[in-house]
Amino acid sequence: MYYIFDSVLDMLGTLVDTPVMEVSDLRMRYGDREVLSGVEFSAAPGEVVVLLGPNGAGKTTTIEILEGFRMRSGGDVRVLGVDPADGGEAWRARLGVVLQSWRDHSKWRVRELLAHLGAYYAAFSTPDKRRPWVIDELLEVVGLTAAAGSVIGRLSGGQRRRLDVAIGIVGRPDLLFLDEPTVGFDPEARRDFHDLIHRMTDLDSTTVLLTTHDLDEAEKLADRILILAKGRIVASGSADELSRQVAGEAEVRWTQDGRRFVHSDVDATKFVRELFQQHGAAVGDLEVRRASLEETYMKLVREAEGS
Ligand SMILES: Nc1ncnc2c1ncn2[C@@H]1O[C@H](COP(=O)(O)OP(=O)(O)OP(=O)(O)O)[C@@H](O)[C@H]1O
């Protein structure tokens, strides 16, 4: 309910389902090398989109173009309704960017730096979205309350990454870009970070675009996964949809009378129902397995690279 109410306020005067990002035929060349050759996708408010792809596929390049940090070679891009090449200060204030480790200001204290950076966003506060984030609350959600008074130069690697995230979201962005955000996180920090993303999308209807090489993370976070390979989006869908797209058949394994059986079927549920009808209690150790995201990803990337 809160989500709908918030979205309606956010979108006042515009269409509620206006995409937050619209990318069409995006092209990028470095010299004579084409890295992106017709990337297409869009994202809706509150959606978490995870961009996967092999090293060098162009994920960072894509994000930098959307952030307005890099000029594209061709194609149409709209972010929050604006071409990033023309994005002004008010547009930029609605974006959150988590950079790879904040190295400057090492003599500043954590709370001091967040309050300093947060102050910039106050001018872009709206009745439905108060900016910046209340600093104590922000420290709490990123797990830095105990380190609030610490000098940045003395933070651990994990604490520094938490600070990077805090800096990225201090302005309560409508759209958050995260390029490999959890590299260097321990399992607890990673779980806290995943909770934070869910909290931001549920309560604030923040849209998130993130890159990762961690397929488990992609599966946990993504409403939609995009696979970028050979300069294009070669697949788009939830982890489940991608797995069905790649492997139409599921593998059913069971034991019967001390023997192991394996059967592949497009309708595994029907097969299992019939198996029990025929053999009942004699069936044991039943397992039904679809392709994992890793298998799906590898197959889609290999197919794209072979084409
Ligand atoms: N400023 C640049 N000048 C020339 N080539 C570049 C530049 N930036 C990136 N590239 C090249 O463009 C390609 C895409 O790079 P990009 O960093 O966008 O890929 P990526 O998918 O983010 O990779 P990774 O998973 O390794 O982070 C790579 O081959 C890279 O070497």
Ions, cofactors and other ligands present here are: adenosine-5'-triphosphate
Count of spatially separate domains: 2
The CATH topology annotation of the largest domain reads as Rossmann fold
Q: Which runs of at least 5 residues are low in confidence (pLDDT < 50)?
A: 11-15
Total beta strands:
12
What is the CATH class designation of the largest domain? Alpha Beta
Overall geometric form: globular
Give the count of helical stretches: 11
Computed CA radius of gyration, to the nearest angstrom: 23 Å
How would you state the average pLDDT, rounded? 89
What percent of the residues sit in helical stretches (DSSP H or I)? 25-40%
| Oligomer status | single chain
H/E element string? Answer: HEEEHEHEHHHEHEHEEHEEHEH
Q: Give the name of the CATH superfamily of the largest domain.
A: P-loop containing nucleotide triphosphate hydrolases
> Could you tell me how far the N terminus lies from the C terminus, measured between alpha carbons in angstroms?
46 Å
CATH architecture of the largest domain: 3-Layer(aba) Sandwich
Membrane topology: Peripheral membrane protein
Main location: membrane
Pfam family, one: ABC_tran
Keywords: Antibiotic resistance, ATP-binding, Nucleotide-binding, Transport
